[in-house]
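BUG: 3D viewer hangs when loading the predicted structure for this chain

Environment: internal workstation, default settings.
Expected: structure renders.
Actual: progress bar stalls at 90%.

Input used:
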Amino acid sequence: MTPTLTGLSSDEALRLWSLHGPNDLHPPRKAAWLSRLLRVLGEPTLLALLAVLTLYIFMGSRGEAVLLGLFVALVLGITYVEESRTEQTVEALGRFASPRAVAHRDGAWIRIAGNEVVPGDLLRLAEGDRIPADVLLLEAHDLKVDESLLSGESAAVFKHEGAGEDAYAWAGCRVIAGQGMARVTATGLRTKVGLLSVSLTQIHSDATPFQEAAEGLVRWLGWLGAASCVVVVLLCRWGGQAWAPALLMGLTLAITLVPEELPVILTVFMAMGSRRLALHKVLVQRLPAVETLGAISILAVDKTGTLTANQMRLDQVLAAPGTETPALLAAGARACEPEPFDPMEREILARAGEPKGRITKEYELHGLPPRMGHVWDCGLLSVKGGLEGVLEHCVEEPSWAWARAEAGRLAAQGLRVLGVAEGPLAGAADSLPEALPKGLRLLGLLAFHDPLRAGVPQAVAACRRAGIRVVMLTGDAPETARAIAAEAGFERPGAVALGRDLEDPGRAEALARDCDLFARLAPQHKQTLVKLWSQQGQVVAMTGDGVNDAPALAQAHVGVAMGERGTDVAREAASVVLVDDSFISLVEGVRLGRETTANILRAAVFVLAVHVPIVGLVLACLLLKVPPLVSAAQVAFLELFIGPACGIVFERAQPRQDVMAQPPRDPRAPFLGARKILASVGQGAVLLGVIVTAYVWALGVMPQPQARSLAFTALMVGDLALCWTLLDPAPFWKSERWLNRWYWAVSAGVMALLELLRHLSFTAGVLEMPPLNLKGWGLALLLGWGATLWFEVPKIWRKN
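Structure tokens produced before the viewer hung:
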């Protein structure tokens, strides 16, 4: 398909892009910052803080109102920045999810992003592509396009070069089969689908199970906070307080009860986790996949290109008796696509040279094992494919026994074997049958060597230690699968199941449970396996690259598409894309997914734990009838610490060394089980008990402002110590958390800000917290660390 017309130059493309804009169906959102700001302002805690701010103004407490307003602005700014970072990450994923295009630029075919396509571009279309713009076909070879997006008709439409409706293909439609070359006529909102305002490239940001559970917990605590607010207000009124102070006390309690950081933390952690995965060549297209990656129990991977390097080298050429090697290679070349993507076809053409003549009819890849053929203007039909598939179209000869024996021997060496056949056909191409004809002669075998990727045996072993079962899927012969599995270090490399075995319901369930190698698979067999594994309670990651793989990728818990050889359709169905198609990158993605999940759980435990003493102090002071220790302004100050601690420290926490030595997390397990909740509440309760005791004692030996300053400092130190002890389940002498610069930076920043506020006369007077002397600081450090350091003791006996 060498173009008789050339494409654009880079300068022309840039000029047209400036004129027409990006090829995008999503116009830029001019007021995105405003909608984000309104969403942040709608958070329950911020609304409650604003209500308290209004009360301060109403009560004439201008100092308290100004200080609280400053804290609210800082909380708002931190939350807004975290939301912005998350949205930018998700938008970047959305840009990757858009179709790619192969364009003719500066005299060469190059792959560009779909939004860079401009009117006048010359594009090459192939099976599995999503057409990025409206185009006029200049060449078409058995080109079938799915136009159901626009027409609603499920049947694919044949496209032909020339004039008329059939010569046009529309943006957003999918190439089901064949190849073509086309000129772009319209892009972006000027396309047919753009005029209908239909969006094709949406990033899926569905709530994860973690997010749903956290939001449910926040809603439940929100109702509890509202009820508690009413009760506290009534109790205060009953005790003789005015309405305004009573409302202030009730709202302060409500604010402390709601851990509204949880949903934000989860979203930020997922987004930042996806960014970290991208650095390891694992692109997450749906944020829930970050969480699910850490829970997978079965990793079903293609052999070719994932376990192996997809560097097909023509290793052996075996001509059948009576056939010359050049004739075999020439016939193999005639059975290849004119401009192939397949590495085996490129290798054949490199050895045999470009065939002379013109293709008059194409028989697309079909059957199991698959085979394909081309009819040439010289009257020859050339066919290549899996040996048994090719033999179905040959006249039986003594060479068949030779071919089968040689194919078995080569496959046992891990080579991929193709049979080649050829024969003359009489009549015009349009009179030939649609099914591939019989009566051909077997010319010989072509054996390709695809080496195992470096590091695959180590990655397979890492999966085994992590409790993940690795399953190989291939369309190759079982002997080839068995040889590669043994080289890769599979635990059970001997037993191989065939795709047709899965069509027997009586055997399929047992094979899905017990077999790790599947050969001669068709795409529908992958879907069968995903269904069976899901019914058996497994969490499945499935790889795929073709159009027909899309249903299995969509059905799997984590669909993994190939970035190098994958089609647009497969990428859109998948939740994860491997940039380099490598199994090693996929295993690294599993590890990072587990780390992200572990960090989320640690942050959630911390959030619950630090809210316990805040809530308890409000209630304790009310019940003990002592001056309140924490005001609304101080609660807002605590929010300044909790947000950064979770969003920075826990998100960047050092991973556990044994994260890949643990079994997969049960996806049916609750967000935080009873054990974690009890541990979290218990840790917070111990800190609460220490602070309340210290505060009551201090009130008897020093002025109230000094007592408040001491107790609040001890509370902050205790929260920081609690953050430190939750960073790692290993004992502190075995842990690397000492090297966590983010923890020390946040700790230093928060304590420096607290000390600054106590030295400024205005803020010190409003907060009623004068500076502490050296003795006061020593006592606060002793109380805070003493209340939490004992949490390190159980780690000595815990099995990590």
